[in-house]
Amino acid sequence: VLLSSVSIGVSILFSYTQGQIYGYMNWGKNRSVEEVSKIVPPEGRYWINNDTNQYLLSVYTGETYAPVEWKWNLDEWIPRRQNLKSLGEKRSFVFPVSSLDEFRSNLEEYGMGVIVFMESTIKNSYYPNQEYLDIFLEQDWIELEQRYTLQGVNIYIFNVK
């Protein structure tokens, strides 16, 4: 009984300090992905710096694209492997900003006209590439269109010129 109580206590403590309870308290249900889905562009391709809920966001936005071999590669012996197809077109992209020139080139290559940039307002919690926000705001090849504030996050929508 003591071991079970300690185990349950540790599980709750972890969830409260780093897990689902922590996420819910700081960013809302599913990191407010339903609200984010109303902010991202309804059409066209866009880059977003939030890879945490990318697939859930795709469900909310109606994006039907999913790679056939998403997480694991299928073995060669699987029959009709070559007949598997992805439906729809990929609209949301997540890749690192290693340099601005390379990032800009990737945006052009994949035909993305919008940048959805998320900035955490929670102390010691960061979204990927969040440190580039000030640099993005200074660029002349992108233009800040709108800024939104949700629970624990600021969202900036940039148009690529």
Topology:
Layout: H1 2-17, H2 20-27, H3 33-39, E1 45-48, H4 54-61, E2 92-93, H5 100-109, E3 112-120, H6 133-138, E4 142-150, E5 153-160
Parallel strand pairs: 1-2, 1-3
Antiparallel strand pairs: 3-5, 4-5
Helix pairs in contact: 1-2, 3-4
Outline the structure in words.
With 161 residues, the chain is α/β, with parallel strands linked by helices. It folds into 2 domains: 1-28, no CATH class; 32-160, no CATH class. The chain contains 6 helices and 5 strands. The chain has helices at 2-17, 20-27, 33-39, 54-61, 100-109, 133-138; strands at residues 45-48, 92-93, 112-120, 142-150, 153-160. Strands 2-1-3-5-4 form a 5-stranded mixed sheet, with helices on both faces. It is globular, with a radius of gyration of 19 Å. The model has no long low-confidence stretch (mean pLDDT 89).
As a whole number of angstroms, the C-alpha radius of gyration is: 19 Å
Whole-number count of domains: 2
Rounded average pLDDT: 89
Beta fraction: 15-25%
Please describe the biggest sheet, giving its number of strands, its sense, and whether it closes into a barrel: 5 strands, mixed
Which segments are poorly predicted (pLDDT under 50) over 5 or more consecutive residues? Answer: none
Structural class, please?
alpha/beta
Can you count the helices? 6
Main β-sheet, spatial strand arrangement: 2-1-3-5-4
What shape does the CA trace take? globular
First-to-last CA distance: 64 Å
Q: What is the H/E order?
A: HHHEHEHEHEE
